[in-house]
Specification:
alpha/beta; Rossmann fold; Nucleotidyltransferase, domain 5; 2 domains; eight-stranded mixed beta sheet; disordered C terminus
Length: 448
């Protein structure tokens, strides 16, 4: 009889087992799991999401018989150190003895009545967990592989709870919030602060001071503030280098040429899906773009030479890695001064204390200039502008253990299902040529 009462009234279960304080959003989430087949929760930082997920796991397991609870997360560390640590704490301090056998990532009450933690990208490990009462909890749901989401759906669970930080507007977790099959809940750190101010301070939950510090450090319009404080999906991911609105701002710019310095930049490809791309720039205005597919390096050298001479350019910069090295050699044999840009990961940055490689440094310089609206992209064709926008705004970065920025490689982007950022790379190389020209306040040596 008690089980049925707990299943109907989760708050009663929480009172009888722990009698601690749960704030309003935590109660909303557990009641939603009671009432809806699929619940998606986008959550700010430090608002007690893992704590309530652990309580939901124990509530469902104990109040439904026979039941199974499967908890998954992107990594085993997240699974063991966060949710299962919460479960162990709750298990040990429960006023009613739960019983069974508690292991690192398993609570077994009977052979067919258990909770289990699984972190895997292997679909077959997510198969075979069938039960009339099956709850699947997807913690840090943004990072879980799409194939695992599909495997979970194949289990036909009685209930699904997907919960996590909304760090990036892409992937299966993001899709939940536009899918009518999912009941949706958002948890803001500011709401958590206000609840505590009105009712009771809960140890370990977010504070007003933390929120104010993040507003100062990140800015209230930054992707990090949107996701980690407001609990909302940002316009882009927090690891996205260039934001969409920066590109749109530069699209409408009409700037005057202050430093008459013409540049031709070429990102070289040969065969395959990559494209040879040539950009023409004067000061911060992009006024021309040429894209060719599957052409030999001899033809590329001719196209670049023609553009350089026709535009009477002051600097010519070419990607000197891989096949680009052949183009550089052919141009120099014709007495054309070429500024070689090492676009690969091994080229040392000028500012090597803050950037892992040269590409990362100049991608970041481009990003900061776009943010400030310094470029004039008004003369680009709509097609080329959209290509550039898509490539730059899709580029992600990380900060390494030494605090240096590292922009992802072409191979990294391709692994995410994106096209090679050929136009973006040419755009960045043009910035490198501009930087080198301004540093010496000289124009590239030319043989006409």
């Amino acid at each position: 009889m008690a089980q049925k009462n707990w299943a109907r009234d989760p708050s009663l279960f929480l009172r009888q087992y722990w009698n601690d304080i749960n704030w309003s959003k935590q109660i909303e989430v557990i009641n939603a799991v009671k009432d809806y087949p699929k619940v998606a929760v986008k959550s700010a930082n430090t608002v007690g999401k893992s704590h309530i997920a652990a309580k939901i796991a124990l509530w469902f397991l104990i109040s439904h018989y026979p039941s199974k609870v499967i908890i998954t997360a992107p990594t085993f560390t997240q699974l063991e150190e966060i949710v299962w640590k919460e479960i162990a704490t709750l298990y040990n301090k429960s006023k009613i003895v739960i019983g069974g056998e508690l292991l690192n990532t398993e609570l077994k009450l009977e052979s067919d009545w258990f909770a289990l933690g699984i972190s895997t990208n292997e679909v077959n490990r997510m198969q075979g967990f069938h039960s009339p009462y099956l709850l699947v909890i997807i913690d840090e749901a943004l990072g879980v592989d799409p194939m695992i989401w599909e495997a979970i759906e194949g289990l036909h669970p009685y209930r699904i709870l997907a919960i996590g930080n909304p760090l990036s507007p892409e992937g299966e977790f993001f899709k939940c919030f536009s899918n009518p099959a999912w009941h949706k809940i958002g948890i803001s750190a500011l709401d958590c602060v206000r609840w505590q101010q009105q009712y009771s301070k809960i140890p370990g939950l977010v504070t007003l001071e933390w929120c104010e510090e993040r507003a100062t450090e990140w800015g209230i319009k930054s992707p990090l503030y949107q996701s980690r404080v407001l609990g909302e999906f940002p316009q882009e991911g927090s690891d996205t280098l260039v934001h969409l609105n920066w590109m749109d701002k530069c699209r409408t710019n009409k700037i005057d040429i202050e430093y008459d310095f013409k540049i031709v930049a070429c990102d070289v490809a040969r065969y395959g899906e990559d494209k040879t791309t040539v950009i023409k720039r004067n000061d911060h205005k992009i006024y021309g773009c040429e894209i060719k597919e599957k052409i030999p390096t001899t033809m590329t050298a001719g196209i670049v030479k023609r553009a350089y001479e026709k535009e009477d350019a002051d600097s010519l910069v070419v990607d000197d890695d891989g096949v680009g090295g052949g183009v550089t050699d052919m141009l120099r044999e014709q007495h054309i001064g070429v500024l070689a840009f090492k676009n690969g990961s091994k080229a040392k940055a000028i500012d090597h204390n803050h950037y892992v490689n040269l590409k990362s440094q100049f991608y970041h310089i481009v990003a900061k200039k776009l943010e400030q609206g310094l470029y004039d992209l008004s003369e680009m064709s709509q097609l080329h502008f959209e290509m550039l926008k898509n490539q730059l705004c899709a580029t992600k970065y990380i900060i390494d253990s030494m605090g240096r920025m590292k922009v992802e490689s072409k191979d990294d982007m391709k692994a995410r299902g994106l096209v090679s950022p050929d136009l973006g790379d040419a755009f960045v190389m043009a910035e490198y040529a501009y930087y080198m020209g301004r540093q010496g306040d000289i124009k590239e040596v030319r043989w006409r």
